Amino acid sequence: MRNIALVDVNNFYVSCERVFNPHLINKPVVVLSNNDGCAVARSNEVKKLGIGMGAPWFKFKELANQHGIVALSSNYALYADMSNRVMSILREFSPHQEVYSIDESFLDVTGFQSLNLVEYAQSMRARILQWTGLPVCVGIGSTKTLAKLANYCAKKIERFNGVCNFNSMQEEELHKLFECIPVSEVWGIGRKMAPQLEALGFNHVRALQRSDPKMMRNKFSVTMEKTIRELNGTMCIELEERHRTKQQIVSSRSFGIPVRDFSSLSESVTLYVSRAAVKLRQQASFAGSIYVYIRTSPFNEKDPFYSNGLTIPIPSPTDDTKQLVRLALWALRKIYKAGYNYQKAGVMLSELVPREGIQTSLFSDSTLLDQSGNLMMVMDSINKKMGKGSLKLASEGFRKPWKMRQENKSPCYTTNWQDLIKLESISPRNQVTKDGYLRMKNSHLPKLSSAEQAAPRLHPGIPVIARNRITSTDC
Amino acid sequence: MMNERTIRRAIPLFSSKASAGFPSPADDHLESRLDVTEYLIDQADATFFAMVTGDSMRDAGLLENDIVVVDRSKKPVISNIIIAIIDGEFTIKSLGQSKSGRPILIPANPDYPIIEIKDETDFQVWGVVTGSFRRFR
Ligand SMILES: [Mg+2]
Q1: Contact A438/B113, CB-based, under 8 Å?
Q2: Nearest to B90 among A131, A133, A425 (CB)
Q3: A contact set with B (CB within 8 A)
Q4: ipTM
Q5: Binary contact (A131, B86; C-beta < 8 A)
Q6: Which run of H or of E encompasses A48?
Q7: Between A4 and which of A147, A290, B83, B93 could a Cys-Cys bridge form, CB atoms 3.0 to 4.6 Å apart?
Q8: Do the beta carbons of residue A174 and residue A147 sit within 8 Å?
Q9: What's phi and psi for B8, nearest 5 deg?
Q10: How far does Cα A203 stand from its chain's mean position?
């Protein structure tokens, strides 16, 4: 029998924030999606208030005021770094790892079954908590679907103390347990399929587990059949052990014959973006920014030299070729100058985040923007403002529309030297109060409300656009 | 391909093998260049940086704006410099023990008081400081 573990960080984004801002501990905290549109992570306190995943901020704003909920903008730089730490620590516990999402990892621990796997999993939890400050739960089962379900139990049922191993439980006990879990909690079933299953009388996981996989395949799909087989302990979905995902994807090429006109250049750039987007999807990532550059030959002394590049932050990270191409061509239009013999063009996708960390349905802001034409409008307005070569101006202009929607972003504690945790809070001796109790100064702390004021002060003169310089060569 | 010249350049001046005086093929001397990250960091996944403000650790050589290396994988031991959270605030101090066995936080500057951790104090060791660095320009 296989022993598959699923390790999942509890309330990942909120937990990350709490590591660096202890004031958030035991307080109701939500993290909002990119444009501060809706809740993408909730602390347990917030879940108890009945605020659902994906709830739009404007709908629960009042409730938030009432209960003192702290709403934070998402800080993907921080989450991505903390995720990398967790995944790297887990790799020490088994060489067979599938990083499933920004905060979830499957581990094949079959090779460690001579150990007490519950204890082994507890040592994972202890180490991740000690090393990163993040709480995780571990579920163990004989298939990925069961491991997922076991993780759900580890999270929801207190007596498991954060680790639930189906493989060490009696069958009878398991069946009882499964009778209490709604089918919607089964991996791959989801909220859409669940009502259909319930209408057919499959009210709990046990009922689904006992169903005839072949019949269910006919009624639903092959996926459903696999799910049922997996619930019965037959591994149908193998671990996908991936190499570590790349942090940047570059696609570029030198032209055999110099290119002069915009339309040829845009064709090339479109091609490069499409190629890069394929790679992006292959490694299951979304890009948070795109860089486009063009240049003439530096070795041709007869022709005038020109080289320019532009980075565009993508407000809602995406892997969609169409969107990426649109952004790239917009950038190309900004940097293209007629009358030069262009010899090379390239694109680079960076600020990559795992796809699963981002829930497409919740991050539809960009699509909305596109539909209303807002994005293009914003771009065109900058177009007017922009003098030639003034990247900095462009960056500020571009960022402004979204800046107000990133009001409460915490500092990038682990990825920016200017954003480090500030130590020292102890008053000198003469500031001890009469009762002998030390009052801590806290004015220097990375407080939520100060984040927005701090941001411009901390990053003077660093334009967001053109932050990335291409150093890599053709790939 | 490396030619002889590049290999020679790559030999560190104070390679232990070189100083031992045994002749060996140049390849044996190929070591990676000194790396400050490697010097300062033992456990990268558990290491964080923080910035010192104030002068309460002055006599331990930690000045305003110094960056400290914080390793969360290390068990704090008495006399270690640690990052602690007291009532929700970060602070950097030496970890000590009072006569009654309670943890105390000792500043490295006589202008600052020793902090005794009482039962009601919300206290937690966030990480152990294993090093520090600063730039002059
Ligand atoms: Mg999670």
Answers
A1: yes
A2: A425
A3: 22-23, 25, 85, 88-89, 130-133, 413-414, 417, 420-429, 432, 438, 440, 442, 444-445
A4: 0.81
A5: no
A6: helix A44-48
A7: A147
A8: no
A9: -60, -40
A10: 33
**What are phi and psi for residue A367, nearest 5 degrees?**
-65, -40
Tally Cβ neighbours within 10 Å of residue A196.
13
Which regions of A268-378 does DSSP assign to beta strands (E)? Answer: 285-296, 307-318, 342-350, 353-354
DSSP count for chain A of H helices, then E strands: 17, 14
Question: Would you say A283 and A245 are in contact if contact means Cβ atoms under 8 Å apart?
Answer: yes
Q: What is the pLDDT of residue A425?
A: 56
Run of H or E residues at A4: strand A4-9
Pairing of strands A29-32, A70-73: parallel
**Phi, psi at B131, each rounded to 5°:** 180, 180
For A441, counting Cβ atoms within 10 Å of its Cβ (0-12 exposed, 13-18 middle, 19+ buried), the class is middle
Name the 3-class secondary structure at B67: strand
What is the DSSP code (8-state) at residue A27? Answer: S
Tokens of B66: 């110094």
Mean pLDDT along residues B22-50: 81
Q: Residue A288 — φ and ψ, nearest 5°?
A: -100, -10
Q: Are A465 and A395 in contact (CB under 8 A)?
A: yes
A25, A70 Cβ separation under 8 angstroms:
no
Q: Which of A116-130, A325-339, B1-15 has the highest mean pLDDT?
A: A116-130
Token pair of B30 as six digits: 């190929």
Cα–Cα distance, A32 to A39 (Å, whole number)? 4
B105 contact residues in A (CB cutoff 8 A) = 426
Q: What is the pTM of this model?
A: 0.66
Q: What's the mean per-residue pLDDT of chain A?
A: 78
Element housing A65 (H / E): helix A57-67
> Residue holding tokens 């909120």?
A14
Instruction: Identify whether the C-beta of residue A292 lies closer than 8 Å to the C-beta of residue A391.
Output: no
Contact A89 B93 (CB under 8 A): no
A289: β partners: A313, A350
- C-alpha dist (Å) from residue A462 to A391, A392, A404, A465: 11, 8, 19, 9
Residues in chain B: 137
Give yes or no for a contact between A419 and A458, defined as CB atoms under 8 angstroms apart: yes
Distance CA(A122)–CA(A15), nearest Å, equals: 19
Q: d(Cα A349, Cα A280) in Å, to the nearest integer? A: 8
Q: What pLDDT is stored for residue B110 in this prediction?
A: 93
Say which residue the tokens 């090393």 belong to: A131
Supply A343's token pair: 């010899």
The model's confidence at residue A164, banded by pLDDT at 50, 70 and 90, is very high
Q: How many CB atoms lie within 10 A of CB A182?
A: 14
Compute, in angstroms, the gap from residue A44 CA to the centroid of ligand 1.
12
DSSP letter string, B85-135: EETTEEEEEEEEE-TTS-EEEE-SSTTS--EE--TTS-EEEEEEEEEEE--
